[in-house]
Amino acid sequence: MLLLFTRLRDDRPLYKRDLLDLACLPSGSEVHYSDQQKYVETPLWNDQARLKDQMALVVFIEEFPTEELRAAAEKADRAELAARRGAIKDDALVNAAKDAWTTWALKAQTFHPVRRVKIAEVQQEQDAINLKLEAEDFVDYGTSGADDLSVNFTDEIKKLSAHPAYHRDRAKLVVDARLQSAPPFLVAGRKAWTRLAEHLLKLRGLEQAVLFMVEPPAKDQSDAMGSVLPAAMRKGHDKGQLMYELTSGGQYRVKLNVLYGRNAMRIPPRMQVHGAVADVLGPVRRQRNSGEEASYLIVARQMLTSSRGWMWIRAEGAEASPSSANHDASARGDDYRSPELVVFLTTNPALWYLIFVVALFAIGTMVASVSTDDLKRLGMDRADS
Question: Residue 304's domain spans which residues?
Answer without folding.
Answer: 212-349
